[in-house]
């Protein structure tokens, strides 16, 4: 048995020695780079054998002989054969969209996107194929569209621009209004969104306000004690020389309350007995100022003396709801000075 093992090992050694000697001047299968490929699976080649070269799928030969030869030294001849990737045509422009890519050669990828407000229809990417064509054509970017804005019951909708047909474009806004006596509850505007739907639609609800209050020293246009509908108005005015302050009318608001009510402000009298005043651009003696009435917020001036410079000057004061404060600098003259020496009063001498 031991002898059989020895003979087997000896035979294997002789066989390997013979094969090695047979291939000492042959060429091994070449390892080629640059996307060059060889046909077949043969591992050893005899001197003089020519081996044709080809490009892998998706590549095109551009230079150098398309074969190599096994030499007697067991080496292959050199080659400048090159394979370049195939080019795909420049991609089509995507209207209302964009595309992103680094190259247009074999295996390059284009990614497509649409601008805001548009939906991509088609493939979102394309690959340059081995035959020099793109795997798919450029997609379309279709505008996002909504239907017409929902109209609330007892309401109406006004679009920011004219709408044709039954579709509206992304970003279009609509303004809502209600028919009196209904009031709007919710946002007054809606918009066509990227999802192709409108934002929330408001409601129209009945709103009433209680009978309005009267104002002191004034009267209103409605004497009937009743409830008023949304947006109904009531006017106010004042009696005699009283002046209305605030809006002359109030409106029933969507919250069921009236807008701010006005008030009637009282007139003033100029509280001096002797002297001159300046009122509405006219200079007059106080006894000639008839009736002695200055309306709310009106301005009247009295005259004061600048004793250091011996000149007179007018100082204004304003009527505020029945109160008119006489400036402290005013000194009311005596009856004698007023009647006999009026030309020496601050209003009559040289003005500062």
From TrEMBL:
Residues 25-85, 86-143, 144-206, 207-266 form the Sushi domain. PROSITE patterns: SUSHI. One of its GO terms (molecular function) is heparin binding. It is found in: Secreted. Residues 1-21 form the signal peptide. InterPro entries: Compl-Cell_Adhes-Reg, Sushi/SCR/CCP_sf, Sushi_2, Sushi_SCR_CCP_dom. This is Beta-2-glycoprotein 1. The lineage of its organism: Eukaryota, Metazoa, Chordata, Craniata, Vertebrata.
């Amino acid at each position: 048995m031991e002898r059989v093992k020895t003979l087997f090992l000896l035979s294997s050694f002789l066989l390997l020695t013979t094969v090695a000697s047979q291939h000492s001047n042959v060429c091994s299968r070449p390892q080629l780079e640059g996307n060059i490929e060889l046909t077949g699976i043969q591992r050893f080649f005899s001197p003089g054998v020519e081996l044709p070269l080809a490009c892998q799928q998706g590549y095109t030969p551009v230079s150098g002989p398309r074969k190599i030869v096994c030499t007697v030294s067991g080496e292959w001849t050199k080659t400048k054969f090159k394979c370049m990737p195939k080019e795909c045509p420049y991609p089509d422009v995507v209207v209302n969209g964009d595309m992103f890519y680094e190259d247009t050669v074999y295996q390059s990828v284009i990614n497509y996107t649409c601008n805001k407000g548009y939906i991509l229809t088609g493939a979102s990417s394309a690959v340059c194929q081995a035959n020099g064509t793109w795997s798919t054509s450029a997609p379309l970017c279709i505008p996002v569209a909504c239907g017409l804005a929902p109209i609330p019951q007892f309401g109406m909708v006004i679009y920011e621009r004219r709408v044709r047909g039954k579709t509206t474009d992304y970003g279009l806004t609509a303004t809502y209004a209600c028919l009196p006596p209904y009031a709007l509850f919710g946002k007054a505007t809606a918009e066509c969104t990227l999802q192709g739907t409108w934002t929330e639609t408001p409601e129209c609800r009945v709103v009433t306000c209680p009978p309005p209050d009267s104002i002191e020293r004034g009267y209103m246009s409605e004497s009937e004690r009743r409830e008023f509908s949304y947006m109904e108005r009531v006017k106010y005015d004042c009696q005699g020389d009283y002046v209305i302050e605030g809006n002359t009318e109030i409106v029933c608001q969507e919250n069921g309350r009236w807008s701010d009510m006005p008030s009637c402000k009282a007139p003033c009298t100029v509280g001096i007995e002797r002297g001159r005043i300046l009122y509405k651009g006219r200079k007059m003696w106080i006894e000639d100022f008839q009736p002695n009435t200055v309306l709310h917020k009106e301005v009247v001036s009295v005259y004061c003396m600048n004793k250091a410079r011996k000149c007179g000057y007018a100082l204004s004061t304003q009527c505020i709801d029945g109160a008119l404060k006489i400036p402290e600098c005013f000194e009311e003259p005596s009856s004698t000075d007023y009647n006999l020496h009026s030309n020496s009063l601050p209003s009559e001498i040289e003005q500062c």
